[in-house]
Amino acid sequence: MTTIRELMSVVSIAVLCGLGAGCTKKPVAAIPPVPPSVRASAADTNTPAPERARPNTASTPKPAREVAETRYPDKKTLATITELLGRIQDAYFDYNKHNLRPDALATLESDSRHLAEIVRQYPDFKMKVEGYCDERGSAEYNLALGDKRAESAREYLVAQGIPKSQLVLTSYGKENQVCNEHSEDCWQKNRRAHIVAMAKP
Fold first, then answer.
1. Hey, what's the torsion of the CAs at 119, 120, 125, 128, to 10 degrees?
2. Domains and CATH numbers, the chain
3. Residue 132 β-bridge partners
4. Distance (Å, rounded) from C-alpha 165 to C-alpha 150?
5. Alpha carbon of 166 to those of 73, 125, 195: distances in Å?
6. What is the 3-state secondary structure of 80-117?
7. Residue 152 pLDDT > 90
8. Model-level pTM greater than 0.90?
């Protein structure tokens, strides 16, 4: 009968499967765990934009060397300053006086405003205002008088816009004479105030 044959077929298949002849199921490969780095990356991706760590956009401070260089003029600017100082002639004084005469005012005014516009940008740049006297009088008296002459010149330059902190006073009294003859013409040349750039600190 057909039914008996079908039954026998089913029994045979069951027996074969029981013996592991070909009906064993293939084991399912275990899924490896997700690496921590991948989990962290995925979590960061799913985090809303406002909550994510943002890069530090704060400006970093300039190195001390770079800051120092901006406080002192470069070679090109220094050459311009030197040229301007060369145009400003010495301011001359009357005998035993330290007040600026009209011709001395005109001399100091020459290019001093332009000079002020430049040097104000470089706080570390300094100039020396030198005061001189003629050979007459004691050394001590002439040192004091030379200091007053340098101070008068500095006050005028400050009025033109040059910061006082960038002008250093020095009195040479009757030392470093530019003329050594014993005449009024020569003495007049020695009674003066002179401005010179100082070396870089």
1. 70
2. 73-197 (3.30.1330.60)
3. 173
4. 14
5. 13, 7, 12
6. HHHHHHHHCCCEECCCCCCCCCHHHHHHHHCCHHHHHH
7. yes
8. no
